[in-house]
Here is the input.
Amino acid sequence: MKYSFFALISRLRNISRWSLMRNTSRENVQEHSHMVAVLAHALAVISKDVFKQDSDPNREATIALFHDASEIFTGDLPTPIKYFDFDIMTAYKRVESVSTTKLLSALPKEINKSYEELLSFDKKDFSSPIVNAADKLAAYIKCLEELKSGNEEFKQAAKQTYSKLKLLDMQEVDYFLEKFIPAFELTIDELGALEFSTE
Here is the structure.
């Protein structure tokens, strides 16, 4: 029997994000998932090495790679619609669950269990606050990049996303915002200059 799981996963690159807004640089779900994985890994490293918490960067990064996999079937529903009210949010969670079940059925039985946790990261038993934080952080970085390009369309989204990040009250997030976010506002030339700084 032939299985379609990885062929389906590869199609994440066809799904655009931020579809209700004018973008200077289009972002697809595959690109977003990669960035969330990088950020989840970073937040877990910060948690482990700076704050001496029991964090597993590799696990968090791997979960993040698959955190939007259900969107292969659902597409990327814009946040204002997804969270408009409780009924819509509940219905969408059900749709995501059906999509996840469909994806898991596209795997051989003997490896299915290993992917179940990755595709169910937001369920109670598999909860990952670090991946949720990394997801918001990636959205905030996207907003900053659009604003840097002169696209005021993302001004309100940047403010709202920053507020959500602060409300998480996570020391790993605050550390990242302080130490790493300012560099996202620099040009490539300025970033290059940082590499040779003697400070």
Summary: The chain has a mean pLDDT of 90. The chain has eleven helices and no strands. The CA atoms of residues 50 and 70 lie 33 Å apart. The chain has one domain: 5-187.
